[in-house]
């Protein structure tokens, strides 16, 4: 009996202990769950509060238009400019430009008169209090496709005394656009209108009145565009990290050409192997600048400079002979253009005007030939205007730079150009230069762009606006730079004795801006590139500098006792003894080829 009693007591004791252990475990589990819930709530709240204090590009007001409506409207391109600007931000026209004396002069590609093809009036461009309401009203449209006239008889503008002045410089011949045929290849098609394929964006654009968006001012169009991009962007928390080595930067970047479109909507975070640096946007811009410089270089063999007054880049028809992987590289080039628009990067290279028109789907006409080859355009104009062209002994063929003769039509080299068929010849020359000679390359280039930014969204801009968004402001305004710079004073742990006063630090800051103001434009650009990774300023000005996560990230000066720069967009400014020493340091940086963000 005693043995049985002992066994029973052991069982009871074991059950008690098991109950105690299970009870404790249950309490711990409940406490853990409650703690995690509270922690997540607090963390989410903290992150939400943190994000609430940050801005995206689409939330940033236009710097150039914030002087409470005070300013002037450019008579050439229609852009509303800040009163402090003496030249137009978009086309470079002087505020004192007189139309009566300038209408007879040849316009450069940066100063072409905006014609009536987009239906934009002075009131539309200047903007007004009702534009925000107009933005909402644009969602009420019921069209499946938006079309807009793209050819014009002439341009009528108001002269200096209020009279009507007509400019025939932009008088256009038949326009053509590149469109995909049933086999998926680009073809040359007559077009009098800009046609917007809203299916390129998928669902969500059915209720948008694209004609209405096009009629908005540049400021409002850009804001609308950025809002649309933010809707397709991958969340910042899912940014894609890329480790790059400078020696293999093109090969590693080519991985982007194999990525699906959805993956290209994620923000990039770049790190260079073996180099210090936290990508707050500067490393991304440096990577972008290096890759673009190589992509547009003569050595790469993808693009060639145009032959005209304003040098820009056009696709090399002979790229297949210069680079075996040229088509894949053109896809990468297109993706880079798309990422520039998507992530607020600034492109140093200017695309030729006809190439911008290809991107936007705007018809290309005979006059656009001038922006590829001025001499060819001049010769073609002479041919169109004069008779007895048989004496020139021309045939329906062209000679490429490598010596290859290409027929413009079947057996063209044996067909003479005459007064009767010269219009056909000129049309075929235009088609060859604008599409046939570069069709494969152009197709990859455009597909790369549209994989990042849907074509329908780009179609609301004209070519001048697209170039301004891509290439940013051409000059660096020191006043704008200074006004939108955040200053951090020496950290307390570096100034424990308090022997460096705030007044002394402000003195060094003053020296810095005096020296920057005195730098030559190219030196100022090089200094900006050293700090931010880019030598140009986005269209919003210095307010528009972005981090790699799509958030506005101000240029920052950190005053330090010793300089060691490890973070992009942050300039560590040591406490120099005098302005001459500071000037020597900045001049050294601005005159040397600097890579990375390390400065001892």
From TrEMBL:
Its EC number(s): 2.3.2.26
Tagged with keyword Magnesium: no
Entry's Gene Ontology molecular function annotations: ubiquitin protein ligase activity; zinc ion binding
A biological process from GO: ubiquitin-dependent protein catabolic process
UniProtKB keywords: Membrane, Metal-binding, Transferase, Transmembrane, Transmembrane helix, Ubl conjugation pathway, Zinc, Zinc-finger
One GO cellular component term noted in the UniProt record for this chain: cytoplasm
Residue spans crossing the bilayer: 17-38
Gene3D superfamilies to which the protein is assigned, alphabetical: Hect, E3 ligase catalytic domain, Hect, E3 ligase catalytic domains
Domain HECT: 260-600
Reaction catalysed by this enzyme: S-ubiquitinyl-[E2 ubiquitin-conjugating enzyme]-L-cysteine + [acceptor protein]-L-lysine = [E2 ubiquitin-conjugating enzyme]-L-cysteine + N(6)-ubiquitinyl-[acceptor protein]-L-lysine
Pfam families named among the record's database cross-references: HECT
InterPro entries, A to Z: E3_ubiq-protein_ligase, HECT_dom, Hect_E3_ubiquitin_ligase, Znf_RanBP2
Pathways involved: Protein modification; protein ubiquitination
Ranges for domain RanBP2-type: 67-93
SUPFAM superfamilies in the record: Hect, E3 ligase catalytic domain (SSF56204)
Name listed for the protein in its UniProt record: HECT-type E3 ubiquitin transferase
